[in-house]
Amino acid sequence: MNAHAAAAGMVPAIEVRFPEIERWAEGNTGVPYVWSFASNRAGPHTLIQALTHGNEVCGAIALDWALQHAIRPTRGRLTFCFANVDAYHAFDATDPFASRCVQEDFNRLWTHDVLAGTRDSVDLRRARQLQPVYDTVDVLLDLHSMSDSCVPLSLAGRHAKGVALARAIGIPEHVIVDHGHAGGKRLRDYAFFDDPDDPRTALLIECGQHWERAAPHVAREAMLRLLTHLDQVDPLWRPRIVAAPQTVVEVTDTITITSPEFAFRMPVAGLAVIARAGTLLAHDGERAIRTPYDECVLVMPTRRPRVGETAVRLGRRVPTTALVAGAR
Asked: Which of 79, 123, 216, 322 measures 20 to 30 Å from 113, CA to CA?
């Protein structure tokens, strides 16, 4: 990474070591970089995923730790998956945002039409390779991180079961209820994960900024808390869990960029609260984007606006109990 750029605040500092995941390349499932272990006791199939995006290293650090320490399920099946490994191997510290994907976003591919269609890319080929694995999963934890500094977030999807899973894990403090992106469906919203009547569910956790020292600790803690909740990990590895309040933000508007002239008209940051309805937030070409209500929460505003992608999501805080009762 360019040290001058980091010092000037243009690129966040890289505070973590990227693990050498090639040692896990062979896997034990017939699918490269996928390791799966079964207990002799009945239980769920849980999958912990890292590297949905190639430059989001915290999950890879957590999985590398789990495999090195021979974490095994005490019931059911436990799978560790390094997803977009080609993007990870393309990481270049001088341009650290470029390796989010190879040709297209792995986390916008999760519909039948895309997966079974004729389109082709490196990222889509890997998605098709992993799809049969995901089709066997009961609970999926997808470990991510964010481009800009922001407290960790859970993205629970739009149904009560996702919020319930976020609450069971107990971290992070902020739980986001949303419908995803116009640019394509996320893995956490794939098929049965997004069916309110199917018990199988997924949770996406943004563990902090991509390369900050704290993010891998959040990833590992979330992984161990999930396995503790599911009674799938030996007591030796169970964290001490102290109940803490969580804040739920329900996304009401997803602002998708339609113009190359998109620009925010005020400083923005993740979870910033805009006090007044009607505040000018951005221009997208000639379209003015204003906050729709008082106390509007900004969820993950982008640092790199691109046509067709999400600029920011707008949400409001809601009581957790009301949300779980009312979510579809």
From this structure: 79
